[in-house]
Amino acid sequence: MNKLTRIGSMSASVVASSFIGISGLAGASSISNTGPGSNNSVSNNYSNSSNTSNSNHIMSMMHSSQWASSGSANSSGNTNGGNANSGNATNGNSSNGNFSVMNSGWGSGGSNSGSGGFGSGSIHNTGPGSTNNINNNYHSSYRVHNSNHVNSQNNSTQSASSGSANNSGNTNGGSANPGSASNNSSSSSNVQVSSTSSGSGSNSSNSSGNGGSINNTGPGSNNQINSSYNSSYSQTNNNNVNVSNNSNQNANSGNANVSGNTNGGSATSGSTSNSSNSSTNVSVSN
Fold it and tell me: What is the mean pLDDT of residues 250-275?
């Protein structure tokens, strides 16, 4: 009795690749004319596995603390007193934060695919009483995990104070004009997070020809064809975006005092102003 065993095996495994394309991987095998009583086997195994993990942690803190004070102006004890004018106190703050995070599991427009007549096998003309087996196994696994943590904080603390203006004890007193106090704060934050898994999200497999053929084996033969196909896809996206904009402002103008003069001028206090602008844009795409 003649016994002939022929095994064709094919295995492909790719892990954490930016692009996986399988084309034309035909595990074609052929066993023919082996005679009666032969033991013939064709086995084709194909595995396609990919794991992609992206973890991004971005933290930005912008802190501005400002204080401005003008000195006091005093005109007193003069025969002819001039004007008493204190200076202006001004604070200005501008902050801008831009964040862009892009994660791509398979690059742009990539795919996880397998095609091309995988696992074809052929056994024929083996004679009576033969044992013939064709086994085809295909497994495709694709997993993507994206974790993004973005934290942006903008803190602005400002204080402006103009000095006092005093015009007193003069025969002819002038005016007393303290300066103005102003604060200005502007904050802008742009956050963009994009997580792309395999471009258009494709995970395709074409296992055409994923069978086999056993022909003309004769009476009393034991013939088996086993084909299995398994494809799995898993994607997890965790995005945490925290944006905080805080602005604390204080503006005080000085006192204006005209007193104890024979001829007193005017007393005018300065102006105070606070201004704060905040803009936040957040875009998350998975």
Answer: 86
First to last CA, the chain: 63
**Chain centroid to CA 28: how far?**
44
DSSP summary character for residue 80 = B
Tokens 């204006």 belong to: 256
Tokens encoding 235: 């994607």
Q: Is 18 left (phi over 0), alpha (psi -120 to 50) or beta?
A: alpha
Instruction: Please report which helix (H) or strand (E) contains residue 23, including its range.
Output: strand 20-23
**Cβ-based neighbour number of residue 79 at 10 Å:** 8
Among 13, 27, 20, 9, smallest CA distance to 199 is for: 20
Q: In what order do the strands lie in the sheet with 73-76?
A: 73-76, 165-168, 256-259
Q: What is the pLDDT of residues 70-118, one digit of tens each?
A: 888 888 888 888 888 888 889 888 888 888 888 776 543 344 444 444 5
pTM for the structure as a whole? 0.61
